[in-house]
Design brief:
This protein is mainly α and 97 residues long. It contains four helices and two strands. It has a two-stranded antiparallel sheet.
C-alpha cells in the first residue's frame, strides 16, 4: 500500500471535513427555518440534547469547535426563548417543549 505525502493527506482531510460541515449545515436549513433559529443555535441545542453528559458551555466550545462568545450569545438567546435552561452551576439543559 502506497503512503500519501502527509501534507497531501492533511489537505484532503481538511477539504473533506469542510465539505461535510457544509453538507451538515445544508441539511439543517429546513429545520432552522421551521424553528426560526440560526444554524449555530440549532447546532448547540442538538449537541446538548444528544450529549447530556457534556452540558457546559465549555463542552460545547471544545467539542463543536465554537468560540466562547458565539456560544454565550446563542445560549442566552436559546434560554430567553425557553429552549434551554441555565442552572446555577453553569450547566445547560435542553428544555423540550
Amino acid at each position: 500500500m502506497q503512503m500519501l505525502d502527509p501534507s497531501i493527506a492533511a489537505a484532503r482531510m481538511y477539504s473533506n471535513s469542510s465539505r461535510f460541515i457544509e453538507a451538515y449545515h445544508a441539511v439543517l436549513q429546513p429545520l432552522c427555518r421551521e424553528a426560526e433559529l440560526p444554524v449555530m443555535a440549532l447546532d448547540i441545542l442538538l449537541f446538548i440534547a444528544n450529549n447530556p453528559d457534556k452540558s457546559t458551555a465549555r463542552d460545547v466550545c471544545q467539542f463543536r469547535g465554537m468560540k466562547p462568545g458565539i456560544v454565550s450569545f446563542h445560549v442566552d438567546r436559546l434560554a430567553a426563548a425557553g429552549l434551554l435552561e441555565l442552572s446555577s452551576i453553569s450547566c445547560l439543559e435542553y428544555a423540550p417543549s
